[in-house]
Q: What sequence folds into this?
């Protein structure tokens, strides 16, 4: 077995007659979910617009960086400009371009704190007022659903949050839509180069995304097609044989052989390291590819976790998160 290296990429209920019976039954019911493994497409829009970077503006005679001068930093979230809520790049650009060079007050969220800054746009060499910053308001992509909960009308997917590619910061989710997706083909992974599942949205909306957190994408849905399965407690999980349930063609998932090679039961991350051993899957994907994030990991008939990342230098290996932890987050955030 190749040694896993640390470099990863990114590329988810009776009246009491016998009290003990009632408690055990309720616990068992609440711990059962509908197994995912299906691809989904997400379109998400941020809370305000995220500053990706600042840049200089050339007005023909001098070079200046208005955003940097105002104290604006990458990863800042611009919530409003001159008291007007900002939802899109276009809204912010319009206010800046129509400023005539007058100062603009921006309300910004930085590290969970709200602050205000004043930026003074300058006219560039083409005669357009600019503030000297790159911003982003949305993201879209394909991932894998880990499980659905009938009890909560919710779902979990990906097993990790969606981050801005250049800064690595979690995109603050305002709202998002979740559609079914179809996998058309696969770009194979090789050690040192990660491949991907390539597909498209079917435009059949199955829910809304409400949370983008470190443990994955969470949302509301009444889509509950699939097999019922019990979530394993973390201390039930063992190293050894397991399966992953994932889709590499169309939208119908299949089981593939895998092995859990390491488990971290304390606060250390990741929760698991998993190795793909299925020759059929490896022949098609090379191991783990982008888009497989969220793929359920099943052991002894129970859902134990989800794949979260591929290890770049050893692409048949990857990291995983406990399903129990994902369920706890779903219960906490959606109840």
A:
């Amino acid at each position: 077995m190749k040694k896993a290296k640390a470099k990863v990429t990114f590329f988810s209920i009776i009246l009491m007659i016998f009290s003990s019976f009632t408690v055990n039954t309720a616990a068992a019911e609440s711990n059962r979910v509908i197994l995912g493994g299906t691809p989904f497409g997400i379109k998400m829009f941020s809370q305000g617009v995220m500053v990706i970077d600042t840049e200089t503006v050339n007005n023909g005679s001098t070079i200046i960086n208005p955003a940097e001068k105002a104290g604006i930093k990458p990863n800042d979230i611009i919530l409003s400009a001159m008291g007007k809520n900002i939802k899109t790049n276009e809204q912010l650009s319009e206010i800046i371009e129509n400023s005539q060079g007058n100062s603009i007050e921006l309300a910004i969220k930085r590290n969970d704190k709200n602050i205000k800054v004043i930026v003074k746009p300058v006219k560039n060499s083409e005669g357009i007022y600019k503030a000297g910053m790159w911003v982003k308001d949305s993201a879209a992509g394909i991932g894998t659903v880990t499980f659905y909960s009938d009890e909560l009308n919710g779902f979990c997917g990906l097993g990790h949050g969606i981050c801005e590619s250049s800064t690595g910061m979690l995109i603050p989710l305002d709202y998002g839509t979740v559609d079914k997706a179809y996998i058309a083909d696969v770009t194979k992974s090789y050690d040192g180069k990660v491949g991907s599942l390539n597909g498209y949205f079917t435009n059949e909306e199955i829910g809304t995304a409400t949370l983008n957190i470190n443990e994955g994408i969470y949302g509301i849905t009444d889509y509950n097609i699939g097999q019922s399965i019990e979530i394993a407690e973390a201390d039930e999980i063992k190293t050894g044989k397991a399966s992953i349930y994932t889709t590499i063609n169309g939208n119908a998932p299949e089981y593939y052989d895998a092995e859990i090679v390491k488990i971290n039961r304390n606060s250390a991350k990741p929760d698991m390291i998993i190795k793909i051993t299925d020759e059929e899957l490896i022949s098609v994907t090379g191991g783990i590819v982008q888009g497989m994030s969220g793929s359920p990991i099943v052991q002894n008939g129970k859902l134990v976790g989800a794949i979260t990342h591929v290890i770049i230098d050893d692409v048949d290996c990857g990291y995983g998160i406990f399903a129990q932890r994902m369920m706890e987050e779903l219960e906490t955030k959606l109840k």
In short: The chain is about 15% helix and 45% strand. Confidence is low (pLDDT under 50) at residues 1-28. The first strand starts at residue 8 and ends at 9.
